[in-house]
Amino acid sequence: MNTAKQFFDKVTRDRLNDLHNDHVINIVDRMVRLCRPSKVTVITDDAADIAYVRRLALLNGEEKPLTIRGHSIHYDGYYDQGRDKDHTRVLLPKDKKLGRHINTIDRDEGLKEIFDLMDGIMEGKEMLVRFFSLGPLNSGFSIPALQITDSAYVAHSEDLLYRSGYEEFKKLEGKPDFFYFVHSAGQLDELGKSKDIDQRRIYVDIEKNRVFTINNQYAGNSLGLKKLALRLAINKSNHEDWLTEHMFIMGVHQENKNRTTYFSGAFPSACGKTSTAMIPGQTIIGDDIAFLRMWHDGSCHAVNIESGIFGIITNVNPVDDPLIYQCLTTPRELIFSNVLVNDGKPYWLGMGQETPKTGVNHFGDWSKGKKDTEGREIPLAHKNARYTIRLRELDNVDPEAENPDGVQIDGIIYGGRDSDTNVPICQSLDWDHGVFLGACLESETTAATLGQEGLRKHSPMANLDFVVVPLRKYIANHFAFGRKLQKRPLIFTTNYFLKDDQGNYLLDKIDKKIWLLWAEARVHGEVDALATPIGYIPLFQDLQAMFETILHKPFSRELYERVFSLRVENLLQKLIRIENIYREENMPEIFWSILRRQRERLTTAQQTSGADLIPPSGLKNY
Ligand code: OXD
Ligand code: MN
Which pLDDT belongs to residue 398? Predict the structure, then answer.
């Protein structure tokens, strides 16, 4: 039997002891005995410790330096380029039922399997033990998180994406109130990529607030604090009285108005969440995960649990995403992943410039036209290639980003990738209707998860992949949350992805700025709206004026009528899909009554107008 002692030096042991938390010590000891690393290093909040992690990632080849100062490149395995939903499972205790949407495995069986696979998995490697805070320091919102990993890239990424929390752990005064994550990239091949990809496992133990993830490197699979913590926090908040959401938080600013109105927004992966939060002229607090609680004054406050961005780089170019582009091309600590590198310079899809014909990418040595083992042509970079940066280095970071009290949220947006059904922006009739619209969110799949792209998938609040409680519970928690609030945020839906019959987008990327600013003006009661069966939509003259003054481009009545038409037949079809999904979920009666009324309103409009497609001008007397 190994004792943990043989793996620790005095510094490591002292650093653990200084936390005065036996739970932490026991976890680390147990994981060391199981994984048998050759060395254990505990990282504190000290700048020298943190710098060590980055150096290690460069030294062991998980990252390579690029020409611009602070930039590095990391590659994940060719088959490890997105979240692996098939191998992400919740460990299900015998007496629990969670619902069809959750991939589960019997808890005892799952634990046995993963512990067997983890036996000696870190042999010859260094185990890094890191402490973080999910959320701002000294905040009642935040949850301490312990990360154990044998990947310096994972530890480094987390350093860019989260607040270091060694000192926060001391404040626990010995209590076990933290999440923990154990990751191993497993055996690596000669290119430094996880070899045993067929034994990739991501097992989420909601009973003990912990996740084990092995034989993978892609951050959505490997970083405990990102999508793995999101699942644990959803479980926690839904057994309490707050919300954990797949949401950005941003400050919205109208030109010539001296105010900041905070919005949060949930969009499925790769549907414009980061680029909305980074719209020029606005300020960002976070682009991915938010904790929302009722504040003392009855309003809704939110914090970003992260402090960085793990963003999709595809199509980031100086025209569509000028702020992100600028930050990717200037010196700062930044990790690119799965892009093409040629002569120390990164290249990605849709970057708006000539790209080289050769280089190194997520496949290895690459040249244009090269095929993979399945005979598919390898693109110069993966569609889901990413950049990882700290938020605080951005010029557009909001001054309240680190406020332990969070910010007051006045507007919530639910957006999806929808080529043929929803209008570009719509305000819900009230909170409950807004929750319903969030619960109906559908989106066409993208490269952020493994599997086929372009399929229409239902994802309530863009969170389905991460909801580890029954859907009824998750949605009911939203209804209840709003009922408690005295100052409810307005709820909106957006759709940036409407297409014409030839498959061309009807709107420009930058137009989302107008939808956002219109929603902000609604919060302040500054613009009127047209009541339609699906909610309130903008008036033509308001949009026309906003396009003119803000984007300096025309917005024609014809385009307005086209994009804001109610596609009644498609909307009704969608309600059928939604009904089928939720029928099995034992949903609260309020959900069904909202659905019935929505259907009645749409059918009446269809009968009155005698059409399946009703332009706003046809809705005047609604
Ligand atoms: C992400 C995702 O990376 O949702 O944020 O996949
Ligand atoms: Mn996300």
Answer: 98
Pairing outcome for strands 126-134 and 143-149:
antiparallel
Which helix or strand (DSSP H or E) is residue 439 part of?
helix 431-439
At the second CATH level, the architecture of 4-63+82-237 is: 3-Layer(aba) Sandwich (3.40)
What is the signed CA dihedral for 115, 121, 125, 130, rounded to 10 degrees?
A: -30
Token pair for residue 135? 């959320």
Q: Is the CB of 387 under 6 A from ligand 1?
A: no
Phi (first) and psi of residue 403, to 5 degrees: -65, 120
pLDDT tens digits, one per residue of 481-518: 999 999 999 999 999 999 999 989 999 999 999 999 99
Query: Taking the mean position of all CA atoms in its chain, how far away is CA 307?
Result: 13
pLDDT tens, 368-391?
999 999 999 999 999 999 999 999
What confidence tier does 6 reach under pLDDT thresholds 50, 70, 90? low
Which DSSP string corresponds to 42-82? EE-S-HHHHHHHHHHHHHTTSSEE-SSTTEEEE---TT-SS
301 vs 411: CA distance, rounded Å: 11
Cβ contact 71:334 at 8 Å: yes
d(CA 229, CA 290): 12
Q: Is the CB of 459 under 6 A from ligand 1?
A: no
- Ligand 1 atom having least distance to the Cα of 220: 3
What is the CATH topology of the domain spanning 244-307+401-538?
Phosphoenolpyruvate Carboxykinase; domain 3 (3.90.228)
Cα(566)–Cα(212) distance, integer angstroms: 46
> How many residues belong to the chain?
622
Q: For ligand 1, say whether the CB of 269 is within 6 Å of any of its atoms.
A: yes
Which runs of consecutive H residues, i.e. helices, occur in 243-363? 273-277, 322-328
* Among 160, 216, 226, residue to substitute to test ligand 1 (most atoms within 8 Å of Cβ): 226
Per-residue pLDDT tens digits for 27-36: 999 999 999 9
Of ligand 1's listed atoms, the one at least distance from the Cα of 246 is: 4
- Name the nearest CA neighbour of 57 among 44, 70, 38: 70
The CATH fold of domain 310-393: Phosphoenolpyruvate Carboxykinase; domain 2 (2.170.8)
List CB contacts of 399: < 8 A, sequence separation 6 or more. 283
pTM: 0.95
Count of alpha carbons within 13 Å of 560, Cβ hemisphere only?
Answer: 21
Q: Is 271 a catalytic residue?
A: yes
The single residue of 35, 271, 300, 440 carrying the catalytic annotation is 271
Q: Which ligand is nearest to the CA of 312?
A: 1
